[in-house]
């Protein structure tokens, strides 16, 4: 008889395709299917945002929750987009116009700590069988929004182990100390050894201190996180937990991201299919023909992503006959700076557009990811899959997924892109020049495109690594 599946509750604030602001959604949305083949039965707990409730198919109430941070709620079970979901229906917390974290003016919801403490409270109550009779063997928590789950599990003595995955340490879930008791955090747990962070409550730190194991989304970021340059004040906490911290690379959903079957593009299986997509993209974005590479960016426009450096280095690309197409949204200053670029060889689309992102990645010659830090990064993986060569900063997951073109890697026929370091406009400019040199050598370029398209970017090995971690923690090995 085969072993029974390990039951895992995945707790997340976003999940593709239902609600997404970044890569966390892609990962949370892909993990259940990736792990199904590994003997893991994963259910996903999400806040009942409007979009999630609307998408739920045949929702059944599992339990009533008389009071949940200022109002009543219910736990619902249902399916949507192939996912097995549990949903926290609590209109006073989640039934709002705007995004998962921001109101329609782009400001954080003032009660974000309580909103995500509610998500965590429900997760811990599910684990304790207080809400229905499904009991997970383990809870997998994502980022600060699920940071209080390990704390509540420990304080409630549930005996259910937890894993916390850090997708981005820049977001820490800080709340004024005065709100700690309302969040259910009391006594010595508020000390420096507990959830306190420079006089505030850090919901991420609660997870870092109390989870049984910590993971992040690439091996290099796992190392970087333990340094002052990248740990954003939590490097000491992470060094103290070095033995429990590991990096597991993200994969991509090959059903959604494969050039041979992508409904948004002119499908192709070899790099020979790319020029037709490039021509279509140029036509769509009103870009002329050009002798150099068409470089694309699909990104949140924030300090993290280093796109201010790209604005500085851009003349180097344009001088070589290259072009740039940007799809992104985020910080008003960066949106404005990109909008202000006035050059026929630059196209800028401000906004979020899933379909256009596919056409850009299929039609570009290269994809640029000049991030100052990047826990994993997904768009360079899409680039590899589509033969759109990644030019990336040497950091985090970008360092782990792109094989830089050097004489040795070219000779061994494994090079897939270009890396630059340090992350400065000058180094980026040099990398763009190098990109143009390679583009001008069609044999080298198409060899790299084939290498890139053959590079494995699916979930296989990483799903196995998560399954092994779960088995270890639940004593199933
Ligand atoms: P992060 O999570 O830091 O934003 P990732 O590279 O891990 O970075 O994931 C970003 C995800 O969001 C990718 O799936 C990317 O295609 C998508 N994305 C980012 N900006 C946009 C946009 N403006 N339009 C469409 N998709 C976008
Ligand atoms: C974060 C990171 C990104 C990572 C994503 C999914 O948003 O910024 O690098 O790929 O989470 O793990």
Please describe what this structure looks like:
There is one protein chain. With 477 residues, the chain is an alpha/beta fold. It has 2 domains: 6-251 and 460-474, 3-Layer(aba) Sandwich (Rossmann fold); 271-454, Glycogen Phosphorylase B (Rossmann fold, 3-Layer(aba) Sandwich). It is 36% helix and 20% strand. It has helices spanning 23-36, 50-55, 91-94, 112-127, 148-155, 203-210, 219-225, 235-240, 274-285, 307-319, 332-339, 354-363, 379-385, 396-401, 407-411, 425-439, 442-454, 460-474; strands spanning 6-11, 40-47, 57-65, 73-80, 83-89, 138-142, 162-166, 174-176, 196-197, 200-202, 213-216, 245-247, 294-301, 323-330, 346-350, 366-369, 389-393, 418-420. The strands form 3 sheets. A 9-stranded mixed sheet has the order 3-4-5-2-1-6-7-11-12, sandwiched between helices. The protein is globular. The model has no long low-confidence stretch (mean pLDDT 97). The structure holds adenosine-5'-diphosphate and alpha-D-glucopyranose.
């Amino acid at each position: 008889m085969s072993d029974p599946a390990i039951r895992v509750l995945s707790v997340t604030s976003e999940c593709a395709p239902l609600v997404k602001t970044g890569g966390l959604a892609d990962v949370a949305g892909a993990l259940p299917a990736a792990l199904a083949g590994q003997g893991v039965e994963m259910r996903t707990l999400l806040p009942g945002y409007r979009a999630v409730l609307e998408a739920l198919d045949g929702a059944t109430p599992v339990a009533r929750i008389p009071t949940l941070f200022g109002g009543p709620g219910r736990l619902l079970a249902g399916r949507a987009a192939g996912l097995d979901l549990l949903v926290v229906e609590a209109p006073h917390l989640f039934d709002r116009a705007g995004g998962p974290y921001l109101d329609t003016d782009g400001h954080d919801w003032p009660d974000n700590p309580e909103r995500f403490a509610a998500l965590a409270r429900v997760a811990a109550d599910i684990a304790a069988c207080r809400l229905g009779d499904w009991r997970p063997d383990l809870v997998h928590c994502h980022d600060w929004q699920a940071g209080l789950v390990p704390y509540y599990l420990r304080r409630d003595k549930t005996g259910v182990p937890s894993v916390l995955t850090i997708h981005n340490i820049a977001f820490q879930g800080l709340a004024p100390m005065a709100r700690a008791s309302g969040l259910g955090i009391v006594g010595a747990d508020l000390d420096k050894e507990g959830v306190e962070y420079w006089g505030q409550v850090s919901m991420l730190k609660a997870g870092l201190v109390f989870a049984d194991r910590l993971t992040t989304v690439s091996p290099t970021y796992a190392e970087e996180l333990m340094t002052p340059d990248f740990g954003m004040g939590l490097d000491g906490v992470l060094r103290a937990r070095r033995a429990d911290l590991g990096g597991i690379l993200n994969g991509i959903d090959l059903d959604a991201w494969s050039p041979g079957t992508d409904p948004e593009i002119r499908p192709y299986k070899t790099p020979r299919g790319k020029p037709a997509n490039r021509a279509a993209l140029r036509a769509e974005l009103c870009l002329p023909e050009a002798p150099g590479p068409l470089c694309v960016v699909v990104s949140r426009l924030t300090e993290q992503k280093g796109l201010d450096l790209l604005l500085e280095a851009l003349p180097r690309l344009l001088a070589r006959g290259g072009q740039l197409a940007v799809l992104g949204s985020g910080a008003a200053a960066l949106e404005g700076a990109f909008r202000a670029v006035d050059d026929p060889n630059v196209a800028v689309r401000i906004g979020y557009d899933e379909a256009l992102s596919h056409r850009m990645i299929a039609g570009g010659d290269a994809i640029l990811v000049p991030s100052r830090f990047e826990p994993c990064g997904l768009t360079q993986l899409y680039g590899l899959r589509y033969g759109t060569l990644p030019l990336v900063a040497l950091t985090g997951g970008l360092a782990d997924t792109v094989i830089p073109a050097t004489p040795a890697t070219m000779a061994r026929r494994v090079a897939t892109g270009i890396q630059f370091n340090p992350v400065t406009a000058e180094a980026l400019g040099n990398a763009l020049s190098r990109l143009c040199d390679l583009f001008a050598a069609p044999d080298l370029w198409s060899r790299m495109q084939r290498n890139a398209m053959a590079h494995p970017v699916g979930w296989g090995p990483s799903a196995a690594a998560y399954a092994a971690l779960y088995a270890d923690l639940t004593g199933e090995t």
